[in-house]
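User: Quick sanity check before I run a bigger batch. Here is a single chain. Can you write out its predicted 3D structure?
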Amino acid sequence: MATPTTAPATRQLLALGQSVWLDSISRQLLDSGGLERMVRDGWVTGVTSNPSIFEKAVAGSTDYDAQIAELARNRSVTRYDAFVALATDDIRRAADVLRPVYDQAGTRDGYVSLEVPTGIEHDVAATIAEAKRLFALVDRPNVMIKVPGTPAGVRAARELIAAGVNVNITLLFAVSAYEATAEAFIAGLEDRLAAGQPIS
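Assistant: Done. Predicted structure follows.
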């Protein structure tokens, strides 16, 4: 996957099986072909996002103005709905750029992540419902829904994995939180197998 234009350190990481993910996304990066070049040249194999990244992208350019104006004309659209509309468009496009990596890696890499909103990190049912909704909205096999590693988030992750949703657990600041996340991952796969669903 890496080419001679890839930085030596990046080539070494990839050779060791380490994914290199870009912690940034913007419409300018997509429109300019910048992300496509980074993926093609082997600089990055995935992309992660969060609300702060999107806030910076939207506030720092006029790339979103037309879509925001269109959304504003619909008075029933909430601020969160507007954010989701903007974000899922970018996430979908980034997933398409990363799809060759996903295919070449046999689904082990080439993902782009989208985070559930703040405020539901202690609500298992709300986290599950919103993660499933976002996963369906993006409608790409190589999207991961980012869920915070709170006790509720870890419980939600088990059910999401069992349902076939790709999950990226974030904010793990203790070994015990990592262990709980690993156990939830394995349990989710076991639940899925017990239901006769594939885990590939």
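The chain has a mean pLDDT of 93.

User: Great, the batch can go ahead then.
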